[in-house]
Structure formats: C-alpha cells, structure tokens
Amino acid sequence: MTRTLTILGLESSCDDTAAALVRVTDGMPEILASVVHGQTELHAPFGGVVPEIAARAHAEKLDICVTQALTQADVALSQVDAIAVTAGPGLIGGVISGVMCAKGLAASTGKPLIGVNHLAGHALTPRLTDQIAFPYLMLLVSGGHCQFLIAKGPEEFTRLGGTIDDAPGEAFDKTARLLGLPQPGGPSVEQDALKGDPKRFRFPRPLLDRPGCDMSFSGLKTALLRTRDQVVAEKGGLTRQDRSDLSAGFQAAVCDVLAEKTRRALVDYLALNPAQPTLAVAGGVAANQAIRGALETVCETNGVRFTAPPLALCTDNAAMVAYAGAERFLAGHADDMTLVARPRWPLDRKSPALLGGGKKGAKA
Ligand code: KG4
Ligand code: ZN
C-alpha cells in the first residue's frame, strides 16, 4: 500500500522566515511549495543580523509564509499530516517565534508536532534532492556552521571535525564589510573575486600544518584587514582592482583550506565506509561556485561521488525542515507541547563541543 506523508515545515532560526510543504510518497520526496522571506534589508543598516529585529520580523512573517506555502501547494491545512519546525540551534528569539507558531498550528489542528535540528535539515538535504542513501560524508558550511559529519541515519551523525572559531560564511560576511561590499558577504565577495587576481595577495591557510579536519577562519579575516590597511597606507586608498584582488585572495585561501580538509575527511570517512564513496555539501557557502569546483576536484581525484543541492536549497529554507521532520516522523518520533527552543543543539552529542559562537547563532 502506498504511504503518503505531507509535512508543513517552518524555519526561523536566523534571518530567513520560511514555510514549505513536502510530500513523501513511499520514501520519495517532492517539494510542493517553498516560500522564503529574507530579512537582508532589515539588517543592512547594522552590518549584521540583529537578533531582536530578526525575532520580531519572524513573528510577523511566519503566518504569511504558511498561508503562501499552502496556497502555492494547493493543500489545505487539514490535509497536512504533521507540522515540523526548527527547534534549534540558532538565534533564540527567532527559534522561539517558529516553535510557538508551530505549537499554535499543532494545537488548533490536532496534528503532530516535530522539532527539527536546523543542522539536520541541511545535512539531510542531499536525501531530499538526490535520494542519497546512508551513510555519506557531509560538509556543512554556512554562516554559523562548518563541520564534517558522517550521516548514518536521520538522527545519527558523527562529527569528524569542524571550525574552532568563525564559520566560513561569517568570514565572507566580515570580509565584505572590511571591503565595503554589500551583505550578505558571500555572494558579493564571490562576484568581486571574479575580477581579481587570487595570487597577488597570499593569505594564510590556517591549521593546514596540523593533522585532522578541524578548521579556523578568524585569522584569515585579521590577515585581510592588515593587508587592506597596508595597501591603503601605501597608496592612500583602495582601487577597484585592489579590492577584487583582496576578494580573490581571500576566497582562494578559503577554497584551499576547505579542499585540503575535505581530502583528509574523505580519507577518514572512506576507511570506515569504503562501499559508499559520497560527499555531499550543504549550507549557504556551498552556493559558492569556486568552492564547489574545488570540492568537486577533490572528489574526482579520489573517485568519490560529489553532490550539492540546488542553490535555493543550500541556503536556509523550510523544505529541508519539512523533509527532516518527515524522516523523524517516519522513524516513529514526534514531539509534544513540551518542545523547547534551543540556542545550541549539537548533531553529534558524543563529540566534545567546538569552540566559539558565531553571530548567526551558536556553533554546534
Ligand atoms: O545556510 P545559510 O543560509 O544560513 C546559515 O548560516 O545557517 O548561510 C548563509 C551564509 C552567509 O554567511 C552568506 O554570506 C554565505 O552563507 N553565502 C556564501 C555564498 N552565498 C551565501 N558564501 C560564499 N559564497 C556564496 N556564493
Ligand atoms: Zn542554515
């Protein structure tokens, strides 16, 4: 007998308010609707995400997103089987907005409530988009997170390494601020780097001299600041070309670090799972074409399948939350009205916590 599950997902853990409907038919997922309302303009004057502004905007926009998603999917709320919501990790005010909205919907309709780990949402996206079988190696690389995970099941992840300070997306955002480029910094630095010479400025490749898969990106931003100030002191200002060369040099350093650490993570992963040579990437930084290209090359060289979701599913969205909720629900898990919003929520509960807490929420 065919088993169909229609899940409404909500996402509000950072600066995107999102709702989506995902239908899973006999294990085969389909995105019926995915609505994302970004908050870029709201935070632009402040040069970064302001948690209170984000939380208030989520509270205002969540029900609008839900209505739009239901309308686009042509699904009535009564036809939804369960309500999934990001319950952490993230900026706590935003996470609370989402959890309260989901609880209200669950209470008024009597539908099951499923709390989803935002990182699991990203980490399971390759299953939503490409039906990748467990296990696979996952590089989660975004504005608040950077870690290598072995995905073994919907709620079973082993972390091989991660950033000990800033996430790469955060480094891109800070670099954009230092160079006077618009936020979010990732896409604008990537565009600017296209016109630059990546070899003119040589930035450090942090932690490559140490074994293992841990990474560090905060020193890179300091090096960029120092180099920028040096150029300004020598020439009295930055030309467009100087700026593009700085962008390109910075991006090349991030690429090199991610590529080399990925190569090492693959060695560790393949030693444990030789029969499943797959690397998946997700998170906003996975939208970067240069980084994707560098990772693809590492995979090709090592005979590993590379998979990356379409750009709209790399950045924050609710389709990944609905799908992760469906996986949890199908595995027999659901929550109730005691579900709490969590600022920190590591995917791998056995590994020691990584250091640092980024502007986009705690690293886990
Ligand atoms: O996954 P995401 O939407 O939000 C979380 O951090 O969870 O990722 C957003 C981050 C931002 O820091 C943004 O600058 C970065 O991803 N990003 C990029 C690119 N597009 C977005 N970084 C580098 N290159 C890009 N093309
Ligand atoms: Zn995210």
Portion of residues in beta strands equals 15-25%
**What structural category characterises the helix and strand content?**
alpha/beta
The CATH superfamily of the largest domain is: ATPase, nucleotide binding domain
Associated small molecules: 5'-O-[(R)-(carboxyoxy)(hydroxy)phosphoryl]adenosine, zinc ion
What report would you give on this structure?
The protein has eleven helices and twelve strands. It is α/β, with parallel strands linked by helices and 364 residues long. The protein has a five-stranded mixed beta sheet, sandwiched between helices. 5'-O-[(R)-(carboxyoxy)(hydroxy)phosphoryl]adenosine binds next to helix 5 and helix 6.
SSE blueprint:
Elements: E1 4-11, E2 16-25, E3 28-38, H1 40-43, H2 51-73, E4 82-88, H3 92-109, E5 113-117, H4 118-130, E6 136-141, E7 146-153, E8 156-162, H5 168-179, H6 185-193, H7 218-235, H8 240-272, E9 278-282, H9 289-301, E10 305-307, H10 311-314, H11 319-330, E11 357-358, E12 361-362
Parallel strand pairs: 1-4, 4-5, 6-9, 9-10
Antiparallel strand pairs: 1-2, 2-3, 6-7, 7-8, 11-12
Structural descriptors:
five-stranded mixed beta sheet; Nucleotidyltransferase, domain 5; binds 5'-O-[(R)-(carboxyoxy)(hydroxy)phosphoryl]adenosine; alpha/beta; disordered C terminus; 364 residues; 2 domains; globular; binds zinc ion; 44% helix
